[in-house]
């Protein structure tokens, strides 16, 4: 951070060399990287407790504090100087005088650099401009920063650098810090909400012999002791439903999933999901739950159910729209589709080809419907929308609808043109589930890398009997994007995956 926007840029290598020389001096004096300084106050707490005190109060009640943090600003004015340090709660100003510190300590401070981590002891007071500050009696260099921070007038603007060097991004960009604080509040809210409903939080394996619970391409690893290939989980679903079989009727997991797919503004190969299962419930209960929980989340995190995402207003207080897959694709393609031909494979195949998708030999009308949906409907679903009645062909774990076995009792929830949640009434018929697994195996043998494996142990679990159950997965990353007005999933993941840097 330069101290004057008019100053020309300085060669970074030269600055680093100068800082290394200062560190060498500190080492020689036995003063490098001390670990015996303890602070007793944080910037945010001091502003909250003393920010509105009058000058007379400080004179009558001298308050000594030990503060510490990273120096983000300093201004030297002869025998007096100002600096600002930042800790996890905010910033506090330091006022340093040669007379109070002594010549040796004051001269040492003048040689310190923006970015250094320092400790300061002194008394609280208010400056002539009204800013709460610490009148320092002692300052100490705790950590020498060897690399200069980005220019404070421009910050860390390059998005790729922000993602690669998140540590610098968090130092200089308050907005980034606020996003990740909000992410923590979102997860805590969901935990508290479910705990209050008597759900139990559990943990299931992240390395699995058979990847299941979703249609996706897994990452493969190898277990040396067992000498078997294993898979990073694509979803915890089949393990959580085993727990429902075991009598744990309300379970959830906030889990890391891994899918070997491309990178985009809404996809990261490692991502976080909330997945829950509710015995003696169905998919309609889950739609009601999402609507209520999202309103509560918006109020808790954003302070209102009316908010803006990427320049567009959203009103979460209004009832969420509900539409079937077939209704949605007919409305989006009225010149081609209607109620009489929406399940006709020839009509759907021609439309898919026109849209750029070449149907595979195992693709039935359900698969083709979803391709049409993804290409013509999904990105138009800006306001909160439940799309339900997904085809059984693309929903191998969902319960078939009692009146129409072509579809399942499944929904996906969309907001801002993105899928945020997937839920359905679970398939608990072991014979039906086995048949669907076999159909998935046929697709895999036909070249579909995302098709499911046959999980014999899961079928065995269902044969013991699973009560009627509703299951839900919520994408924490995409939910955080919406509630923090972040355009990319990389903005809400601390360390997103990227190509390795060039040497």
Q: How would you describe what is shown here?
A:
Helix content is 34%, strand content 24%. It has 503 residues and is of the alpha+beta class. The radius of gyration is 29 Å and the shape is elongated. The strands form four sheets. Strands 6-10-11-18-17-16-15-14 form an eight-stranded mixed β-sheet, sandwiched between helices. A five-stranded mixed β-barrel has the order 1-2-3-5-4. A three-stranded antiparallel β-sheet has the order 7-9-8, with no helix packed on it. It has 16 helices and 18 strands. A hairpin with a 5-residue loop joins strand 4 and strand 5. Helix 8 packs across helix 16 (476-483).
Notable characteristics:
503 residues, alpha+beta, eight-stranded mixed β-sheet, disordered N terminus
Radius of gyration: 29 Å
- Across the major sheet, the strand order is 6-10-11-18-17-16-15-14
Mean pLDDT across residues: 94
Q: What is the number of E strands?
A: 18
Brief write-up:
The chain is α+β, with helices and mostly antiparallel strands and 503 residues long. It is 34% helix and 24% strand.
SSE topology sketch:
Blueprint: H1 12-28, H2 43-50, H3 55-60, E1 64-77, E2 80-87, E3 90-97, H4 98-101, H5 103-111, E4 117-126, E5 132-143, H6 159-164, H7 166-172, H8 174-196, E6 200-201, E7 207-208, E8 220-223, E9 228-232, H9 237-245, E10 250-258, E11 270-279, H10 283-302, E12 306-309, E13 312-315, E14 321-324, H11 325-332, H12 345-354, H13 365-376, E15 385-388, E16 410-415, E17 418-425, H14 430-445, H15 456-463, E18 469-475, H16 476-483
Parallel strand pairs: 3-5, 6-10, 14-15
Antiparallel strand pairs: 1-2, 1-4, 2-3, 4-5, 7-9, 8-9, 10-11, 11-18, 12-13, 15-16, 16-17, 17-18
